[in-house]
């Protein structure tokens, strides 16, 4: 029926999207969802070119970066992906994912993401550790990174600056810079406070 896998996927995704009334959030995960799965590269992938051409513009496309688990994300790569997909990608960030090896737990700060990355993204999803309690630092430091990204926008409007200020001075770099070490220290302080608070609860 379809001349290629990409055209089949785009056609089905478009039909479902329209049947649901074109919801504001509708995500499509391509078969080639990171650079290492593309042949020979994201910009030259016939599959991604077709997805970019055929998929309706209101549909978000998920991308994990250079690899399935990407240690770094650069603006250059995201510009390449945006060009071929004809839309900014939604990052599916597997930095903390441990479902592939549950003997490991990742407790470090959110890092390896270039400053100013948010302007190249349509959204960001964090795939956390399987263990719920182990995700305090990952999610807390992601929040600090997000605040710093809001603060570093090149031309923030007044509403944007008010939103940044409303998030509080104690949990984010208001000068627009992000330090993983400082973010980790903030997260650890809050985590210890949370643990101490739980210890005081009856029955603990």
What is the number of E strands? 4
Overall residue-averaged pLDDT value:
89
Percent strand equals 5-15%
How would a textbook summarize the main sheet? 4 strands, parallel
CATH class: Alpha Beta
Which consecutive residue ranges, at least 5 long each, have pLDDT under 50? 154-174
> What would CATH call the architecture?
Alpha-Beta Barrel
The structure class reads: alpha/beta
CATH H-level homologous superfamily name: Glycosidases
Number of domains: 1
The secondary-structure element order is HEHEHEEHHH
Q: Gyration radius, to the nearest Å?
A: 19 Å
With helices defined by DSSP (H or I, 4 residues minimum), what is the helix count?
A: 6
Helix content: 25-40%
What is the CATH topology assignment? Answer: TIM Barrel
Oligomeric grouping of the chains: single chain
Query: Which term fits the overall shape?
Result: elongated
Question: How widely separated are the two ends?
Answer: 61 Å
């Amino acid at each position: 029926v379809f001349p290629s896998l990409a055209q089949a996927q785009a056609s089905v995704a478009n039909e479902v999207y329209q049947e649901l009334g074109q919801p504001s959030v509708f995500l499509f995960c391509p078969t080639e969802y990171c650079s290492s799965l593309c042949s020979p590269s994201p910009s030259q992938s016939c599959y991604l070119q077709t997805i970019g051409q055929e998929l309706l513009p209101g549909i978000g496309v998920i991308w994990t970066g250079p690899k399935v688990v990407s240690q770094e994300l650069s603006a250059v790569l995201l510009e390449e992906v945006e060009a071929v997909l004809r839309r900014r990608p939604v990052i599916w960030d597997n930095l903390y994912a441990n479902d592939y090896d549950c003997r490991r737990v990742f407790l470090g700060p959110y890092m390896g993401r270039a400053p100013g990355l948010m302007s190249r993204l349509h959204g960001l999803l964090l795939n956390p550790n399987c263990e719920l309690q182990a995700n305090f630092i990952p999610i807390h430091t992601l929040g600090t990174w997000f605040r710093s990204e809001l603060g570093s926008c090149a031309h923030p409007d007044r509403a944007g600056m008010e939103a940044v200020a409303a998030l509080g001075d104690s949990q984010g770099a208001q000068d627009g810079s992000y330090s993983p070490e400082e973010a980790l220290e903030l997260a650890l302080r809050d985590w210890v406070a949370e643990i101490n608070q739980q210890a005081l609860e009856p029955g603990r």
